[in-house]
């Protein structure tokens, strides 16, 4: 039976003034890590659940903010932590280490995605058939791999994430749909990866949408990308136009059956 989480029940019973996004730090089922759950405290209808997978930095303010924005749109969002000890990097050297550790244990990553999916489906207003996974940078690669493994998600959306794989999606493996947003000026996602992905998705016969933004660099949805790029001499840059267009496309992707 679905349950209304205790924190939401308490807030509703208290009769808060006006809608607001509320959040709760949670433990994933089965001891599979942790995350942060976001929803509108006035939510009273069935909606989609969205797993948000962080950039290589870890579950930082940016990942939380993306989940919070999804909750403001009326979805129930769960920002999941895929790093073993919940680390958050402040330097690319640490981020690279944490990411490599996660990539070396794909079984743990899948277990955490599945636990996040289970937790979302337990929420009172989440439609069991409308649980999506959205990833940014490192997380974008993670959600694409979940599709390739045949995870029973309604869809996956990757933003400025790596597109290459050693195990291409096979026909009939994934029943959901795929959205990819990438920047044409992103040296971390070369044109060859984009072309190969289009061929892969076409051959697999999945519902697929590609957004490719001229001039957009890596991290184009992150308002702090310019600051991070300058500080660490990395090809990162925020692109407000690409962010706005891809955000609208994500909402349509989630809302369209």
Automatic annotation (TrEMBL):
Residues 1-19 form the signal peptide. The keyword Disulfide bond does not apply. The lineage of its organism: Bacteria, Pseudomonadati, Pseudomonadota, Gammaproteobacteria, Oceanospirillales. InterPro entries: AB_hydrolase_fold, Dienelactn_hydro, FrsA_esterase. It holds the Pfam family DLH. Residues 47-255 form the Dienelactone hydrolase domain. GO terms for molecular function: hydrolase activity. This is Dienelactone hydrolase family protein. Keywords: Hydrolase, Signal.
